[in-house]
Task: inverse folding
């Protein structure tokens, strides 16, 4: 990451060079437009303001989705909240405050956000960048206030300085939450776990409301989101869940996206987004407008600091690849796998074309030149991981690297929306990463827990690193749906036919607790016992360890 003050000075200088006025307060717009239409999050400017005492007023009425923080730097983070439209007073500014303690008896900095920034076109959401105002490697507490009411209190953590020795780093790793098909008790428990940061690897929402365990009524009346109003309804409903609010209050978020923020198995055909099976896919204009809306709503509802240029052509609307340096201990490179990928190798159908594809019927999956990442993002990943001075090199992927085949003998079956549809690029990446010390991949999407050894060629190529996949935090585990396919997705069958897996379990929801120290990386898979309306505690499904300097995956 670039030095914090350099970034702030650059943004201000860019504004001056463009003939714009220097920012006053936190800016008058809903998100300042930078060079070539790129959005920037307003930078916080300290001011002398007086906030109501913590707990004043009815926070749920004014700030119904509470608060969140994300994208930490060594001197700040992005803060987020949303004002209830009925409670918003357009003649009163929104105030913010950060303190060293939860009681706010040790205030650090405060300021105001102009009321004009709270706009209906952004669904009354607010993002504020406090980069440059805080000390490194510290927990802080923050809140907003409006019209005499204080929000609930959130906790954030800044990053260590890049050259700072760090004794331990604990990440909570989650993926995939579908409000209609599950309860969010996993997030409620994660909110009680002491950790440094929360990493979310995509599918923060699902665009569908097909078989509701909990109902979402889309304004369109359809089962799949097809408009901005539909998407806003889904995000509002997700963020109304008390468990999700709790985990975002407690842990600073580091997030990317996958397909279900948009449409199942999303890709781009070179000129437009495609969503096989989505109701709008046959209408290029409508599908393009819908995906633009989905990108914008994701950007508004998550505390992310990414390069977002709303008017750009696809796939350059949004670039989310970015890295997070945890002192000298670890560096996390985070990417996405939807905006730059090639079309699927085997058609637009479902079973037999993209899922459960027989090897002989899809030789195109091995074609050279097929890409999940695009050239620029691929080179960024390789450069970041291979040249990082941090001890542990960590790659966050929405979709696991590891190949998965259902049977060793024909008919061998694959899922080609995953890396098994892009085998040449996977082989290129694993070969290029060979020799990268202490490489750990954290992945999601699969709705299954997995621990695997990454190899430069399967089944017995040189070991490249270790991969840990989290199951869905709150969705349907893969081995519990789609009979009779679920019979073949049970753990014993997967580990038998894929010897690089030390564990596979597609029967439970949950998350990963990943701890890095100078001596080792340890991973605990926390599995929910059942999907019930009432909370039930998780259990430790498995423990793994990789020693620093070793390529051996140990089961504890």
Result:
């Amino acid at each position: 990451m670039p030095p914090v003050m350099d970034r702030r000075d650059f943004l201000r200088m860019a504004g001056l060079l463009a003939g714009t006025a220097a920012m006053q307060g936190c800016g008058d717009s809903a998100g300042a437009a930078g060079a070539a239409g790129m959005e920037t999050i307003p930078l916080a400017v300290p001011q002398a303001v007086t906030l109501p005492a913590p707990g004043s007023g009815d926070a749920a009425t004014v700030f119904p989705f509470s608060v969140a923080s994300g994208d930490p730097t060594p001197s700040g983070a992005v803060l987020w909240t949303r004002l209830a439209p009925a409670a918003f007073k357009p003649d009163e500014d929104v105030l913010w405050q950060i303190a060293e303690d939860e009681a706010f008896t040790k205030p650090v900095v405060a300021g105001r956000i102009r009321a004009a920034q709270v706009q209906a076109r952004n669904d009354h959401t607010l993002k504020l960048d406090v980069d440059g105002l805080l000390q490194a490697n510290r927990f802080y507490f923050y809140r907003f206030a409006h019209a005499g009411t204080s929000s609930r209190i959130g906790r954030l953590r800044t990053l260590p300085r890049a050259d700072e020795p760090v004794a331990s780093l604990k990440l909570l790793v989650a993926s995939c939450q579908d409000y209609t098909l599950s309860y969010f008790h996993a997030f409620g428990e994660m909110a009680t776990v002491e950790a440094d940061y929360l990493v979310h690897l995509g599918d923060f929402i699902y665009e569908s409301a097909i078989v509701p365990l909990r109902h979402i009524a889309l304004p369109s009346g359809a089962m799949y989101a097809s408009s901005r109003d539909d998407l806003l309804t889904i995000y509002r409903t997700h963020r109304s869940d008390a468990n999700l609010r709790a985990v975002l209050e407690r842990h600073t978020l580091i997030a990317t996206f996958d397909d279900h923020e948009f449409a199942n198995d999303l890709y781009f055909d070179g000129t437009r987004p495609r969503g096989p099976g989505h109701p709008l896919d046959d209408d290029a204009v409508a599908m393009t407008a819908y995906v633009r809306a989905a990108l914008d709503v994701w950007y508004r509802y998550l505390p992310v600091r990414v390069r977002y240029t709303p008017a750009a052509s696809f796939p350059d609307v949004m670039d989310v690849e970015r890295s997070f340096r945890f002192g000298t201990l670890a560096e996390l490179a985070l990417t996405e796998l939807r905006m730059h990928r090639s079309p699927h190798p085997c058609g637009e159908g479902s079973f037999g074309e993209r899922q459960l594809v027989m090897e002989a019927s899809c030789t195109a999956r091995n074609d050279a030149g097929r890409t999940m990442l695009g050239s620029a993002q691929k080179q960024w990943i390789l450069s970041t991981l291979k040249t990082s001075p941090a001890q542990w090199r960590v790659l966050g992927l929405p979709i696991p690297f590891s190949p998965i085949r259902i049977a060793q003998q024909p008919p061998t079956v694959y899922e080609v929306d995953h890396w098994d549809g892009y085998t040449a690029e996977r082989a290129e990446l694993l070969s290029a990463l060979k020799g990268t010390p202490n490489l750990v991949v954290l992945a999601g999407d699969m709705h299954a827990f997995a621990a695997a050894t990454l190899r430069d060629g399967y089944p017995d190529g040189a070991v490249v690193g270790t991969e840990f996949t989290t199951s869905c935090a709150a969705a349907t585990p893969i081995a519990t749906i789609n009979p009779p396919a679920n019979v073949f997705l049970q753990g014993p069958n997967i580990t038998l036919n894929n010897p690089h897996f030390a564990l596979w379990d597609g029967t439970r929801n949950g998350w990963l607790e990943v701890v890095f120290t100078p001596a080792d990386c340890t991973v605990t898979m926390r599995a929910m016992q059942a999907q019930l309306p009432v909370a039930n505690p998780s259990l430790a499904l498995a423990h793994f360890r990789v020693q620093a300097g070793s390529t051996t995956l140990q089961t504890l």
User: Anything to note?
Assistant: The domain at 169-199+315-555 is CATH 3.60.21.70 (Purple Acid Phosphatase; chain A, domain 2). The longest helix spans residues 284-301. The first strand starts at residue 32 and ends at 33. The chain has two domains: 4-157, 169-199+315-555.
